[in-house]
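hi support,

uploading two proteins for the ticket. first:
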Amino acid sequence: MTHPHGRHAVLVVEDEPLLMMMAVDVVEAVGLEALEATNADDAVLILERRSDIAIVLTEVEVPGTMDGLALAAVVRERWPLIEIVVVSGRVTIGREGLPERGVFFSKPYDADELAYTLRRLATYQVCIPRAERI
C-alpha cells in the first residue's frame, strides 16, 4: 500500500465541497496523498483500481447506493487491512456501530486530532508486511 513516492493514499469520501477541501488539506498536511470521491459508489470504483490506499475517511451521509457506514462495512469486508475513519455532524456512532478498528469523529472535528489519527493509522500500515496487505 505504499505509494510509489513513499506516501500513502487516503480516500476521502465527502459530498460537500468545502468539507472535502478541509479534509484533503488535513490529509496532505501530514504528508499523505489525498484521493477524492463524492459518493460511496465512486469510492468503491477507486478502491478497486488502486492498491495504494491505506485509509478511507468517509462522511456518514454521502449520496449513492450506500451511505458511509455501509461503505465502511464493504471496505472492512473486501479490503480488511485498510483503516477506516468515519465522520458525521448529524449522528454519533459508537464502537458497536463501526467496523473493527474503525475510528469516529464528530463534526466539526479538530484538524490536529484528525491529523494525529491519520499519522497513527498510516504508521500502522507501514508496520504490516507488504505480503499481508495484498
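and the second one:
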Amino acid sequence: MSAPDKTGPGMGQWLPIQIAPDDCDLELGRLHKTGILPWTFPCRRKSGVWFNVWAGEAVLISPSYWRIWRSGRQQQTHIL
C-alpha cells in the first residue's frame, strides 16, 4: 500500500466496493484516518475473491473502495 489518497482533479473517483465490476483491473483502497489508502498493484475479482493481477495470488485484505486501474498510478498518489 502507499500514502493515503483523496480524489482530486484527474485522479478518478473512488466508488464503494459493493458496486465494483468483476473481471477487470481495478485499483483498490481502504479507508484511512487521512483519506483512502490506495493499493499499489491492480486487482481483479473472480467468483467473489480479489486477486493481485501481477502476482496471481488472492488478496487477504478486504478493500473498501475501488476505481479503474491506470498503469503508473502508484507514482501519482498524494499525502493529505
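thanks. also noticed: Residues 20 and 66 are 7 Å apart (CA to CA).
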